[in-house]
Design brief:
With about 280 residues, the protein is mostly helical. About 70% of the residues lie in helices and about 0% in strands. The chain has 13 helices and no strands.
Length: about 280
């Protein structure tokens, strides 16, 4: 099955979301007199078997709706995806991922207000769906500003406290408003959860650079280069750090490497270099 990859790991396995019945109509209630299941013997057992069968059918249908919606999105047939997922929502209105994927299709069609509403519904219906908070924060930045994005991610972190993606994204937003100390704290939490998280060393290094913590910035850029040695942007950032430390020779070597690769700003950084 082809999966749509957004930000990081956005496809949600429906099996984990069906660990509990998602529709109250299919919950087996306790007998009000005895407080115990099975008081009516075979009748309750037959009903339980029938409910399991219906739940299995629902799981299959939900999986089919989900896969079809993703297929349409992958083929850039976003209107068809919206139609399929809207039909699915009519039948399973409490299933958060349907709103999430419909929001993706809407955002791809620049229907940002609709998409934001669906991402917010997705996180309300499925509070453990980290991707819904991330996409809601992304659109809120455009529509309502960065502080709203941070508020959305705060809610996500409160509900899913060990999710590295939420901390990483909140760190990026903190950095955009120059709250680099908060950004670094979030990047630290990301690395505690996943030591090879893509991009986090680079952005933690940038925040240290802005704060004047040049030694820490250097450590982070070197770590980032170990993971992605062909990322020329990192040479420019490390060069700027060498320059701040007064090591013009090494700074110019990094500027030259970045400049040859066409990194924006790297060639201008060579102005004090004797090449």
């Amino acid at each position: 099955m082809r999966l749509l990859i957004i930000v990081s790991c956005l496809f949600i396995s429906t099996s984990s979301l069906f660990s509990q019945p998602f529709d109250d109509d299919f919950i087996i209630l306790e007998d009000p007199i005895s407080g115990m299941l099975g008081r009516l013997g075979g009748a309750i057992l037959d009903e339980a078997i029938e409910q399991q069968r219906l739940q299995a059918q629902q799981r299959q249908e939900v999986e089919e709706y989900t896969q079809l919606g993703i297929e349409y999105i992958n083929r850039n047939e976003h209107r068809q995806a919206i139609n399929v997922l809207s039909d699915a929502i009519v039948k399973y209105s409490s299933y958060g991922p349907f709103y999430f994927y419909r929001g993706l299709a809407e955002s791809n069609m620049n229907q940002n207000e609709r998409a934001l509403r669906d991402f917010d519904l997705a996180r309300q219906k499925s509070p453990g769906l980290a991707a819904a908070y991330i996409k809601s924060a992304e659109l809120n930045r455009q529509i309502n500003g960065v502080n709203k994005s941070i508020a959305v991610l705060n809610e996500g972190i409160q509900r899913i406290p060990n999710n590295a993606d939420l901390y990483y994204n909140r760190g990026r937003y903190y950095a955009t408003i120059n709250n680099h100390q908060k950004a670094i704290e979030d990047y630290d939490k990301v690395l505690k959860s996943k030591s090879d998280y893509p991009g986090v060393f680079q952005f933690r290094g940038v925040s240290h650079l802005f704060m004047g913590n040049y030694s820490y910035a250097m450590i982070n850029f070197n770590m980032a280069l170990r993971h992605t040695p062909n990322d020329e942007q990192l040479y420019w950032l490390r060069g700027r750090t060498y320059e701040k430390q007064g090591n013009l020779l090494k700074a110019c070597q990094d500027f030259e490497t970045a400049c040859k690769s066409g990194v924006s700003g790297a060639c201008d950084s060579r102005k004090n270099c004797k090449l």
